[in-house]
Design a protein that fits this description.
The protein has 20 helices and 30 strands. By secondary structure, it is an alpha/beta fold. The longest helix has 17 residues. The structure holds 5'-O-[(S)-butoxy(hydroxy)phosphoryl]adenosine.
Length: 659
Amino acid sequence: MSTKKRIYAKEIYHFHMNDPQISKDRNPEVISLEGIRIKQMKDEAQQDPNQFWSNCARNLVWFKEWQQVLDWKYPFAKWFCEGKLNAAYNCLDKHLTTNKKNQAAIIWEGEDGETVTITYDQLFRRVNQLANAFKKMGIKKGDRITIYLPMIPELPISMLACARIGAIHSVIFSGFSSQSIIDRVNDAKSKIIITADGGYRRGKIVPLKRIVDDAIKHTSSIEKIIVVKRTHENIIMGEKDIWYENAVNRESSFCPSEWMESNDPLFILYTSGTTGKPKGVVHGTGGYLTHLYNSAKWVFNFNATDVFFCTADIGWVTGHSYIVYAPLMHGVTEVLYEGAPDFPNPDRYWKIVEKHGATILYTTPTALRSYMRYGNEIPNSYDLSSLRLLGTVGEPINPEVWKWYFNVIGKNRCPIIDTWWQTETGGIMISMCPGIESIKMKPGSGTLSLPGIEIEIVDDKGIKIEDGKKGYLTIKKPWPGMLISLWNNNERYKKTYWERVDNSFFAGDFAYQDNDKYIWILGRADDILKVAGHRLGTIELESAFVSHPSIAEAAVTSKSDEIKGETIIAFLVLRKGIASSQNLDTEVNEHIKRTIGPIASAEKIYFVDKLPKTRSGKIMRRLLKSIVNKETIGDISTLEDEASIEEITQELNAINKQL
Ligand code: WT7
């Protein structure tokens, strides 16, 4: 593998001439990474973090420079205080006076193969028109807008239009169903929801507008529903509804950027936690964008000729950070694909790489595992020679899959970046950084943390654990991309992330470090599942099961799965007088799909008389997990001292008989 260093072109920023708001305070000085190797950068970050991060922040366009790099009042961080900037400006305007103006920003490919190319200039104008339409609807800085769209250009356009006027976007993955919309709209008190008549998924139509109509009956804040025409469904347009095209039609293609204070929220993204209620992770503007710009530079090493293909859905954080904000800030051309990896055939990503000449592919272990199952012939029949870098994210990658990715897809010449991060971290935290220098790769390890990011693996008491031992992954110092807080819930923010281990951020993952200090992620240490890389909370799933009229109690756990990593297994106690049946099994699963979404459907449902619980009533999910995965349970008394051992043993035996 080549260890040759890549040289960064010095970046020069230009400004959109029409924007009257540009202040002279901006500092266009840009750091160059030429010749700086990773070790040296890490030392610099350690010795003078403020200097290091402010050099990083200078890669953005600021309307007004910050007064203070970091204001850290544990556990609340403010980055680049009093600095003013705008996210949409950094993604669009700055390219308009460069040769990127007429370059493709987004190459969109529909599930049916239709392709639309949108240049930076066109994207700029479409974003501005929608921003003006929002203003006309009375949207002000700080208002929340919910976006429930499939992977079509209007999705990033809507996000950037929010950013332009300082509205906070809350994107809901279009695979989620009505309950997810209700919870998220009510928590954020969104005024507008943007959706589509329908979305395509594997050739079928998902009735998005109908799902929204059902959901908003249980919300009170929505004033307008903007509807994009995608599938041309026959839908009912009510009083609050307006077609997207009518909303933007006559709007001007210039809307001044709102000057956002660096710590003003850019978006809320709901993610599963260990309670039934999803957490509204809030990201700010200056810190978040600084982390994204620089992590993308170090990890992907974007250059002017790149065609970046990130296969994530924008409904998850990967799409927010590395489809919308980071690549557009870098002026990269990217592919936005609407559909499933195996539609109509299990070759779609390879076909897209060949068709658009993708140079970087950033995807998930689940997608790779499912492709690998079909053998090498399919990818071998495509020209994948445009690829220079391969990435993976979302779940641990099995070494055999890593090797397949490296040999068959990358033909032994593309480095693999296994990037560890979370919705909460905003951007990549652990990865090899080919943009700084390539280091030795080890299949299955994300290698080391990025410059400025200090990871420590600790034991139960928060004490640093020796190399080779499994412990909890923590982050020792604040970093610019970190979440600001949870929406309207500073207490939960503190409790979830900063009170498990003193003075450190608790990520909720198990990990260990080997002798080379390489970090190996071992999966979640809490009640969160990763099903095909999607994050789902067991308690959230259990509440959805219990909302079915026949179900009295539910316990959800997971079984390891060759393709999806984990699948959902549910143990359900029926209400008195209800009998179990195959019909009920199907009906309950349908109920889950309707409430949370198709991704939450259970692989297997067991109807049981009783659930194993501690005396204080806590469901012992770990025991259930062990038995479904056929692991030895060992001595129960040492696991849960509160439990009635005899009862539990009986219950487990009864469950075991059913498996
Ligand atoms: C959780 C965060 C990161 C963006 C998409 C997921 C798991 C993430 C890796 C990786 C092993 C990984 C962790 C983490 N995870 N990346 N490279 N190797 N595990 O974001 O939905 O917030 O999930 O995904 O368990 O905590 P998310």
